[in-house]
Model the fold of this input.
Amino acid sequence: MTTSDVARHHMRVARIRHLVVVDDDHVVGVVSERDLHRTACASVAEAMTPRVLTIAPETTINRAARLMREHRIGCLPVVEGKRLVGIVTVSDMLDVLAVELRPELNRRDVLAPDEDQD
Done:
């Protein structure tokens, strides 16, 4: 079994699309489900993106979303110093957006005229 096979299996079981590759507690790359399917590589090292854009824990959600959009990436590893402490994904951004929009959407439901009341 290759490292790519192990990565695919882990992604499938965990229902995730990105893995941050860490060596000696330092981020060395990111591999996506798409990277693994697009290449016929036997190793994660060959399939991964080695130059990784990262953010700090104090980075705002707006800044993280802007970086992801500008660089057309699906995740941002969160590092403190050089140590991985988390990951922010597009799914995380959608979750935040849904929570932020929910009160506004609920207000619209209450304030919108009911078409059946005529």
Q: What stands out?
A: The radius of gyration is 19 Å. DSSP finds five helices and four strands in the chain. Residues 90-111 form the longest helix (22 residues).
